Each structure stands twice: as C-alpha cells, then as structure tokens.
Backbone:
C-alpha cells in the first residue's frame, strides 16, 4: 500500500481559496498512491485563531467540494485534513460558537465516507480550547487493505484515544496535525510511542510554514508497528511518499501479543 503525506506550508500571503486550489492540484498528482493525507487546519493555519470564525465553513462547503473532486480525479482515498467547521441549529449545542475542528475522509469516487471532530482541543484556557467545541466520537474507516483510525494533532498526547481506536479495529493510525516547531521532539517521540504500544502503523502529517507567528515543525513521519521510522519529511513543504504492508500489523501482534495481556481499560468483547 502506498501513502502520500502532503506537508503543506501555510503562507499568510496566499489566500485560502488559492491554497485550496494549489493543494487540490497536489492531490491530483498522487495517482500512484492509495491513500493521501493532508494536515490539520491547512486552510487557515492551526494557530491562526482569529481566522477560525471568519474562515469557518459548513461540512459540505468549499473545501469539501474541492477535495471531493480532487479525490475522484486522482482515484485515491483522501484524508483531507481538517477544517474549521461551522454548525448551526441543535447540532451546535456543544460547540463554542458552533465551531469544530473537523476532519473529512473521501473515497476514490469522491464520496465523503467519514468525519472526525477533534476530541482534545489545544490551548488550555485560550485558543482552540475555547473557540471550538470538542468532538465525542472515535472514528475508524475501512479501506480495502486496512482499517484506519483518525486522530488530530493534540490527540497524539492521549494514549487512551488510540487504544480505543485499536479496540474498534484500527490497524493504521492517521494523525493530521499543525504541530509547533518548538515541540518537534515530542512529535517524533509520541508518534513512535503510539505505534509501539498499539502495534499499528502511524502516519502523522504535519504542516510547514508559520501560522500566526508560530513556526511549524514539519517532519511528517511514518512509523511501523515495531516503532521503526519508515519515512520522515524535512521542515519545509514536501510530499512524503511511503510504501507499507498492512499485513505486518497482524504479524506483529501475533509474534509479540502484548495487547492480549492488557488488564486495565480493556473494552468489552465485540459481539
């Protein structure tokens, strides 16, 4: 299986619409890949808090339209990163002003097959933590060769979320992020830790550039179920392409069946 991680640079001089079109063009170039992954909040910048409200869009808004067509044109599964989603009516009851940090996943035919609202919002008592509502549901997507579990940026620091995804059948963990450069060492360490403890692939796609004065880490990374780094990007905008074997997850879990020895927080058997 081949994946392309599009480590997009967010340039404040580039309009959101121009960036959508540029990124869609990059997606269309990934016809040799099975799965394409974009970063978190690449339309606005993960730290451009003042843009969340002004650039927020409905789920089936302009980013949805452009990315659905790009996925269909390329014939790929597309994790289109996340957008500042605006929700109105009763569905917005738990949102801060009706805003959520929402990821979209499209099939090779351009159909929206999954959405994930980020559960752990960063910022403590400011920024995303107060501007956006928290999601509440774990989300997995079945691809032909693997089941993908979805997570976003700050989620990477919460291992219980990933164990929940594994209990739901995830074998490949996709993390879409806008991770700051000053904590880049944590990014690499946590990606490897999640892979080792869950015996799963981790495909973590971050951003490049500077978001509202905050330099981004870049260094998107793909880690195998033993914790080995299969591929790693640099600091700038880059397309990271990697081939990986989904069957290795089952082999790893059979050869070193640590997950079977869990005693705490084990999910009830699925019927």
Residues:
């Amino acid at each position: 299986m081949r994946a392309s991680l599009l480590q997009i640079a967010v340039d404040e001089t580039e309009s959101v619409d121009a960036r959508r079109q540029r990124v869609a063009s990059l997606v269309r170039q990934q016809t040799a890949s099975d799965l394409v992954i974009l970063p978190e909040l690449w339309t606005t910048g993960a730290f451009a808090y003042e843009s969340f409200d002004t650039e927020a869009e409905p789920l089936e808004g302009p980013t949805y339209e452009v990315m659905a067509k790009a996925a269909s044109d390329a014939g790929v599964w597309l994790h289109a990163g996340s957008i500042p989603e605006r929700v109105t009516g009763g569905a917005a009851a738990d949102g801060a002003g009706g805003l959520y940090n929402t990821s979209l996943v499209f099939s090779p035919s351009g159909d929206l097959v999954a959405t994930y609202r980020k559960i752990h919002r960063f910022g403590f008592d400011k920024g995303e933590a107060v501007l956006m509502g928290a999601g509440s549901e774990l989300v997995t997507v079945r691809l032909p060769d693997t089941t993908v579990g979805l997570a976003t940026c700050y989620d990477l620091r919460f291992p219980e979320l990933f164990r929940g995804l594994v209990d739901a059948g995830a074998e490949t963990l996709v993390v879409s992020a806008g991770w700051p450069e000053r904590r880049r060492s944590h990014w690499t360490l946590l990606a490897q830790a999640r892979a080792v403890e869950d015996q799963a692939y981790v495909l973590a796609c971050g951003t490049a550039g500077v978001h509202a004065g905050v330099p981004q880490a870049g260094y998107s990374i793909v880690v195998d179920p033993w914790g080995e780094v299969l591929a790693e990007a640099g600091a700038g905008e880059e397309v990271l392409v990697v081939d990986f074997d989904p069957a290795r997850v089952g082999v790893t879990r059979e050869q070193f069946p640590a997950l079977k020895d869990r005693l705490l927080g084990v999910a009830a058997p699925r019927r």
Q: What stands out?
A: The chain has a mean pLDDT of 95. Helices lie at 16-28, 49-55, 62-74, 128-131, 159-167, 184-198, 247-255. Residues 2-259 form a domain with the Nitrilase/N-carbamoyl-D-aminoacid amidohydrolase fold (CATH 3.60.110.10).
